[in-house]
Amino acid sequence: MFAPTYLDWNATSPLDPAVREAMLPWLDACFGNASSRHEYGRQARAAIDEARARVAAAVGAHATEVVFTSGGSEANNLFIKGAAACRKPGLIAVSAIEHPCVREPAKQLRRAGWTLHEIAVDAAGRIDAQDWSELLNARPAIVSVMLANNETGVLQAIDHLAPEAGRAGAWFHTDAVQALGKIAVDFRALGVHGMTLSAHKIGGPLGAGALIVDKRVELSPLVAGGGQERGLRSGTENVAAIVGFGVACEQAVARIDTEARRLAALRERLETSLVGLGARIFALDADRLPNTSFFAIEGIDGETLVAKLDRAGFACASGSACSSANPEPSHTLLAMGVEAGLARNAVRVSLGRDTRAEDIERFTAGFARQVNELRNLTAMTV
Amino acid sequence: MLKFPIYLDYSATTPVDPRVAEKMIPWLTEHFGNPASRSHAYGWEAEKAVEDAREEVAALVGADSREIVWTSGATESNNLAIKGAAQFYKGKGKHIITLKTEHKAVLDTVRELERQGFEATYLDVQENGLVDLDVLKTAIRPDTIVISVMMVNNEIGVVQPIAEIGELCREKGIVFHVDAAQATGKVAIDLNTLKVDLMSFSAHKTYGPKGIGALYVRRKPRVRLEAQMHGGGHERGLRSGTLATHQIVGMGEAFRIARVEMESEMERIRSLRDRLMDGFSDMEAVFVNGDIEHRVPHNLNISFAYVEGESLIMAIKDVAVSSGSACTSASLEPSYVLRALGRNDELAHSSIRFTIGRFTTVEEIDYTIDLLRKRIGKLRELSPLWEMVQEGIDLDTVQWAAH
After folding, report:
1. pTM
2. Among this protein's residues, is A322 annotated catalytic?
3. pLDDT grade for B216, boundaries at 50, 70 and 90
4. Which of B72, B179, B226, B246 to mutate to test binding with chain A, by most A CBs within 10 Å of its CB?
5. Searching chain A, which residue's CA lies closest to the CA of residue B32?
6. Distance between CA A352 and CA A335 in Å, rounded?
7. Rounded-to-integer distance, Cα B302 and Cα B353, Å
8. Between A and B, how many residue pairs show a Cβ–Cβ distance under 8 A?
9. For residue B203, which of B57, B65, B322 has the smallest C-alpha distance?
């Protein structure tokens, strides 16, 4: 099969071979239900405990703080709605650039009497300082700001924001789905009450995620039933995916230093070429994930360009996968004050474990060709 | 060659059928795309695989694929169905009816709704485990909005009269939810004829992987739900979250195999179950729990009186069975399902659920019969109660000294 060059690692990542090896027995001879008391069940329980320890170790948390979920979306829903259910309705604040699985549950809370504030970001995509200090004066009860943005890759200073919000009386949550495995993530050092992780962005399988949660935070479960995960998430555990998640965390964290440097260098090469072709790189002035580049070329529609790139053998995206059915321009760019016309031209390239220098060279050459074709086409129609 | 422990706990979970695993693995490796990615072939092929699997799940139960919503499992499906319907229709009423013998995923969900201001009736079942339709009829109030009744009980395997309850619900305009986690591949389900509005499914009880399930949501007449998981708007807004392609592919293949093989497989399994039951039939003070006619072919739940439950489980470690449902087996409470049948605590404690499956052999059944007979004989020899019974003392008349 012809395999297009995969440059969409922020959407999902191919399974790490070590993860695959670790998972296979759990789709085969080791099939017990972790709640069963016989040998099959105890074996599954032990594997989950081991994975829990691995996930905790990867992010500087205690194993008892890890609640396994079906993925990042569920973990975000669990914190936002679960914490809100245990507090009197008040003010909830989420940044204007959050993933929909943070913004939508926050919007839902308005029906329960909550006030929602969307925290503004500046032109570089960072939390706006003035809006932030005004927010703290308003004494929010729950605050959620993502550690790294899925589209721009911009990093927020969570280690400053979280303690400030905590002092103002809020429970602070961060969606660290895109940050995990790309930069060092330490639950304690960040000073957050809750943190969301996902397996499939770091070489683990689809179908597993976790909420890391400080035990002082009272949470009400989203899914009621058999009482698994300390009653916070009922349902028979997905042992194979959880085992894979544990190994993926271990693998990703072990290579983080070398990978971050390697990917940053590849991205620099990429962006130098892109700028040479007239691209505008978004959030270039901010601290970003080392693997992510979000850019646009004036006058060339992002969707069209991405479709042409796909036919030329390059898989990238015009924005986050979840909103790729949605023709609206990126809400992250709009929040940064990018005008809608240019935002519609956006293309995201995200690199990963298997990306090599040759891939970047091939991509930049292919990209130049597609851009020139589209420019000529535009010139002809004018 | 027998492999120990012999697995007779297929209602707790099933092994992934090797044919299912084989289908799943390419989607774990080379085809790794996010089905929501619309801009490249990795995403499109994953999306197609997801839709093919949706057709297979729909085909097993006589549904339209547009009526199938993926979830992380039956527990989430039950939560979504019951909370989603109750919250959507709360303007019509606030009363919910379910059975005392439902799975915790239903009971705990209904309890949570009670805390939110809904009212609930938990119906008793008859001694055979089946709901009495007249009792159900009497429980219906003008403000009843949801009735949830499981198709097959996870502990005793009895099959509830879903068709009749469906007629009743449709006539009264009540949303009818059915937990069918234990039913797929064991009994025929035809949603073209059953008047069921919402039905929960699980993959891992039917030789598929864990971590994937589905909820059937009827289109005609349309049933509406409030989403419980918000975000990217996957599954037509009913359940957000990136779809786990390999797990979905696994569920599709598992349900396809169930559709093709159920009839012949159930015949074989029923004969194994009957062989197991016959193996105990000449023993004294042994009781089968739950109706034997209206029952899935693979379940035998049986109480061995005058044997202490924990000792029994310890004594038969070569056989992996359950003494209640797996989800509650960490507690030493006697099964609430058996208590609901009117079994006393002692008898509930000394009960074992045998559930037979695709990979069970005649040799395994014969070994199990032999082991059980020996060990129960031994345990009863040690039991002073058994000795008293043998001497003809009626234990119910004995005045026990308090201590």
Report:
1. 0.95
2. yes
3. very high
4. B72
5. A14
6. 27
7. 7
8. 265
9. B57
